[in-house]
């Protein structure tokens, strides 16, 4: 079954400099706060430097890790992050070969930070299939609001 990916775009002006917004993305504690919009208890394992492997995780109702297996394809501090998804994590196991995993293979999530009037225009471009367009269209704006709150507090 072939699934076509769509690229969704979201943006928000955040009243904090790009350095603060960047910090809110890559800081473990702050990441947990703003990504709770997607799933309460969301977290990451890995690094945010170009070439780093990173796992975006949450715990399911059985107490097992689930999420995305990814790689930081590009990272230019305070400017841009490109995340390439490689597969999924289900029941705590990395999966790059199942049909579900292959649906996400090579999908990207890109973050662009642009300084504007003492703040940041933060842009997100995310590849997804039709099954997630509705939910992402609702959740990403909520996540960006939380990201702004986290970015403007110490």
**Mind telling me the C-alpha Rg?**
15 Å
Task: Tell me, rounded to a whole number, the average pLDDT.
Answer: 94
Number of helices: 4
Class from secondary-structure proportions = alpha+beta
Q: In oligomeric terms, what are we looking at? A: single chain
Q: Are there runs of 5+ residues with pLDDT below 50, and where?
A: none
| Biggest sheet overview | 8 strands, antiparallel
Q: Could you explain how this protein is built, in words?
A:
It contains four helices and eight strands; from the N terminus they run E-H-H-E-E-E-E-E-H-E-E-H. The model has no long low-confidence stretch (mean pLDDT 94). Helix 1 crosses helix 2 and helix 2 crosses helix 4. The longest helix is centred in the C-terminal third of the chain and has 22 residues. With 154 residues, the protein is of the alpha+beta class. The termini are far apart. Strands 1, 2, 3, 4, 5, 6, 7 and 8 form an eight-stranded antiparallel β-sheet that branches.
Topology (SSEs and partners):
Blueprint lengths: L4 E10 L3 H9 L1 H7 L8 E4 L6 E7 L5 E12 L3 E11 L2 E3 L3 H6 L3 E9 L2 E11 H22 L3
Helix pairs in contact: 1-2, 1-4, 2-4
In short:
With 154 residues, this protein is an alpha+beta fold. It has helices spanning 18-26, 28-34, 99-104, 130-151; strands spanning 5-14, 43-46, 53-59, 65-76, 80-90, 93-95, 108-116, 119-129. Strands 1, 2, 3, 4, 5, 6, 7 and 8 form an 8-stranded antiparallel β-sheet that branches.
């Amino acid at each position: 079954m072939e699934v076509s990916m769509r690229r969704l775009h979201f943006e928000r002006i955040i009243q904090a400099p790009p350095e603060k917004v960047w910090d809110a993305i890559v800081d473990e504690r702050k990441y947990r706060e703003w990504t709770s919009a997607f799933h309460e208890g969301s977290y990451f394992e890995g690094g945010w430097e170009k070439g780093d492997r990173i796992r975006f995780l949450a715990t399911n109702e059985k107490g097992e890790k689930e999420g995305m297996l990814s790689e930081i394809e590009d990272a230019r501090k305070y400017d841009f992050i490109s995340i390439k998804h490689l597969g999924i994590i289900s029941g705590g196991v990395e999966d790059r070969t199942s049909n579900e995993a292959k649906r996400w293979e090579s999908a990207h999530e890109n973050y662009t930070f642009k300084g504007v009037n003492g703040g940041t225009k933060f842009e997100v471009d995310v590849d997804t299939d039709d099954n997630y367009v509705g939910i992402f269209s609702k959740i990403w704006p909520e996540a960006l609001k939380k990201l702004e709150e986290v970015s403007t507090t110490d």
